[in-house]
Structures are given as C-alpha cells and as structure tokens.
Amino acid sequence: MKIGNLDLGPKPLLLAPMEDVTDPSFRLICREQGAALVYTEFVSAEALIRNVNSTTRKLTINDAERPVAIQIYGRDKEAMVDAAKIVEQAGPDILDINFGCPVKKVAAKGAGAGMLRDIPKLLDITKSVVEAVSIPVTVKTRLGWDCENKIITDLGPRLQDCGIAALTVHGRTRSQMYTGQADWTLIGQLKNDPRMEIPVIGNGDITTPQQASEAFDRFGVDAVMIGRASFGAPWIFRECNSFIKSGVADRITVREKFNILQRQIQESVDNIDEYRGILHIRRHLASSPLFKGIPNFRETRIRMLRADSLSELWEIFKYIEDNFFPEHAFSS
Fold first, then answer.
1. What is each CA distance from 289 to 128, 269, 317, in whole angstroms?
2. Which of 101, 147, 162, 240 is catalytic?
3. What is the pTM of this model?
4. Are strands 94-99 and 137-142 parallel, antiparallel or unpaired?
5. Residues 312-330: pLDDT tens digits?
6. Known active-site residue 101
C-alpha cells in the first residue's frame, strides 16, 4: 500500500493516534514490533499556532520511528492551514487531519467528529490544508455523526476529490463514542466503491490476529489501524503480522512481554520523571492482556496500579512472575 510515495508494503498495520498514549517512546516500540506507520497524539491547531509548549512538544519525532504521521484537529480553516505549515516544518512523513475524535470537549466545539455536522466546512478545511503543504495529507473520521447520518460512503469520494492521499475510517458514529461494536460493512462498501482510488484504512475493535486478517480478507481494506488493543501490548503488531503472513501468530514469551512493559515504564520515567512517568503508564498496565484472567490477582493488581516508584513496581513484577508465571520467572 502506498500513501503518496510512501510504500508501506502489503497489508500494513498502523498504530492509531491516541491522546496521552502515542508518545515517541511508545511509537518506537510499536514500530519495532511491526507497526508499518505510527501516528502522534492529536495536536490542537489553535494551541499550536499560539506556541503552547505542551502542544509543540508533540511535534517531536525521531528518525528511528519513521514513517510517522502528525495529526492535527481544529474548527477554523485559517488556524488549520497555519498549523499544517508548522507541522510540515517538523518533518513528518504524513500530515493527518482528525475529523473523528468523539470526546465532548472537542466534538461539541465543532472540531474532531463535530465537523461531521458541517460537511461543507469539513471539505473546505481539507482542501485548504492539502493545498497549503507539500507532504501527503490524510484524513481520519467516523461513519457519521449518528446512526441516522452514516454518510461515509458519500463523504469518502468527496474527501478524495479534495486531494487527500488516504482515508481512515473508524467503524462507529460519533454518538456511539467507543460503545457497541465497530461496523466494518460501510468501510468495506467504501473500499469497493469504484470511485475510490486512494487507500482506505479500517479502524475499530481489532484486538486479535484473526480479526486483523479477516479485516483484510473480508472487507478488502488497504491497511488496518490498531488502537486500544495496543495498550500494554505493543506486541500485537508482531502477532498480527505473523498471522497475516503465515496463518500462525508468533509466540511471544511472558519474559519478552515483561521486558517490553518494563521498557515502557522505564522510558516513561526517563522522559518525564518517576512519579508522573508511572502515572502516565498506568493505563498500559491496567489494560495489558498479560495480567488478564489470572486467578486471585485482584490484590496484586491493586498494588501494581497504586505503585508510585520504580523500585516498588519492579518488586511487584518479580512477585507476579514468581507467583503467577513461575515457569517463566526471570532469575536475576
């Protein structure tokens, strides 16, 4: 699959842009585990042109994580154009426009998925951003605002006409937020529309290698984007890639998984500080499938998620390995 001149290979898996998740360290780990393209946290156009430090820091990318896309959102055309020009100077491989974020503080103000209620403005912003920069521009959006307004099969070709290089569709409406099941049928219809010449990327509820493979085979999408299933499990890209290629998912040992989680924790601390770095990584620990389904794990889980120092976390990790994965315990 190609986005502009960027060749991502056959059936690529992409790391979704996620606020407070897809920082440079996590993006690099996911790339090492097989993600073909990674996205930054989304960047507010208004905050970017005001030079807000916490926002400009999101533009930091490392060559090792390439190819990488920077995603922006906003509701004002001039701000989006100016932000796009700033982003281009940061040197990403792709500029992505967010028309899909459903959270109230974004959508209620007319940005993110809120733009799905004003399609002429959405198209005007898209065309203006495409014309303002020389790097490929892509869009990420949803099926529509609500179940009565699933407009993606009409919107897709119109976005293509604006000059975008690829389109990612999350298989839910804005009103669904992240509830219910993602509906891939309209994504498949859009992909199979003979008017569509750019890549169509599917997103939503891909949590297993089998689901990733089915998304390609059943719906014909050009790429699959993985989001929440990567929390505490960046190895999902390795598992999915191997299954797609051979029909068998790579077996990743418990020790390897612990090593990856420990690296995530350590790099989070190194990049921020011990206390805030551990707070930042807790969602990965809380969501990691490594700890799901372990009998009698509740008290240990609470201890792990309340730990506020590296020494305490390492002690808890060793306890978990020794007591719940004794055959994989790491001898120091």
1. 42, 22, 15
2. 101
3. 0.94
4. parallel
5. 999 999 999 898 886 654 4
6. yes
